[in-house]
């Protein structure tokens, strides 16, 4: 079922829902963000003429609906600008993270190797302790 089926009826609520989805999708990757926002934006914009051209009893309500639709369009433009800046900041952060990731990755690999060596030595030592014959309490020699 398409996303626009779940939208509220007024343009302000639709714009608010669109903004919330934008904030949610801005935490995702930039390419998927642009794809999802593009498809969702087209569906949202297809609703605006329907809302603004709906039949009302007075001309005042028509102008009010038109004004609301224009406000929603302006709100969408602002949201698109914000999402572009979010996408750019996400790309910059990912480049910075990838630049600093390699030295930390090497340190992490060294620490893992040291821990594996310690665990291996501990297991070998504990196995030797188990296999060693018990000590005589009087003379401190191994009992055979």
Topology of helices and strands:
Blueprint: H1 11-25, H2 30-52, H3 59-131
Helix pairs in contact: 1-2, 1-3, 2-3
Architecture overview:
The chain has 144 residues and is mainly α. The protein has a domain of 98 residues. The chain is built from 3 helices and no strands. Helix 2 runs antiparallel to helix 3. It starts with 10 loop residues before the first helix and ends in a 13-residue tail after the last helix. 9% of the residues are buried.
Précis, in short:
By secondary structure, the chain is an all-alpha fold.
Tell me the β content. Answer: under 5%
Number of strands: 0
| Tally of individual helices | 3
Structural class designation: mainly alpha
SSE ordering: HHH
Task: List the keywords.
disordered N terminus; rod-shaped; 144 residues; mainly alpha
